[in-house]
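We emphasize that the prediction below concerns an isolated chain of 190 residues; any contacts that depend on oligomerization or on bound cofactors are therefore not represented. The input was used exactly as deposited, without trimming of termini.
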Amino acid sequence: MLFAARGVEMTTIAEIAEQADIAVGSFYNYFATKDELLAAILQEALGEQLRALQSRQEQVSDPAEVISVAHRHLVRLAGADTDLAWLLVRLEVPQRVGTTVLREAARLDLDSGLAAGRFAVSDPALALTASGGALLAVMHEALGGKLADGADSAHAEGVLRSFGVSPAEAAEIARRPLPPITVAAGEDGG
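Result of the prediction step, given as a token string:
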């Protein structure tokens, strides 16, 4: 995927058309801009990841474990779907990720934990942004092969601690077995 390999800004519409084996003018029959294409790609790919992630989360009830499962799943994405992971970490404008389905799901997970009294953060929007930024940084390091086994759990532990979970409990939750994915890729989950 060109966006994953080169970044969105460095990829030209001519290169996209060549890769798709269509004329440049034909590109505009489907998308007005590269950003519109990117949004469609993210919507589809992240929608599939969200369904897989939620199938794991449905197997746990503790809001802290729900957050742990989400972060561990997405860190492991760096090894499972490197094109999508590179696309996420190479986006030149981080706010693009913020408008996707993953951010909304993460906000709902955080809100659920706050409502249950499970988390204690003074600024939920900042906590969400910080945990998302940390996630992308850890994914970047994983894609570069710079992380040891267990980095997904160490990251999840750090996020839980930043959300107000005690160090010992955060460590225990982050090391629980990750629930299996129970929805096949491409299923709509609903």
